[in-house]
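Entry type: protein chain
Record version: 2
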Amino acid sequence: MKKSLFIKACLLLFPSIYAIHSNAQNPVNWTDKQLMQPSELAGIIKNNPKDVTIISVGPFNTIPGAINVGMVSEQENMDKFKAQLSALNKDAKIVVYCGCCPYEHCPNVRPAIDALKQMKFTGFYLLNLPDNLKIDWINKGYPVTQQ
């Protein structure tokens, strides 16, 4: 009871938290076919990296060859994302990822998918990182950038 009351008070006091929270409750805007498994992307990176454009739409640029546009929940970074997309063919193979947190809380994947749809891209995928980048990519030994 006290915890619930505290959360409601925080949401009233901090509208930005409420906005992120309510955005995170939106249903997924991708299909199962648009989810690319980490093992598949790791194989592409190893064998045919030029066959795909990888774009980080979150706070981390961990995957080799990825273009880092930053968190697309911020307008400046969304503009960077759209600029990157505008240079690509509409049927290009594009993989976007965030990995900051579980999908239900992520403020970046849904806006990225919406932008891809609005710009009429047909060959896009969301890297399947349902928990986060560390659990679903790094801990499984997939390639990471040297930073």
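Comment: The first helix runs from residue 2 to 13.
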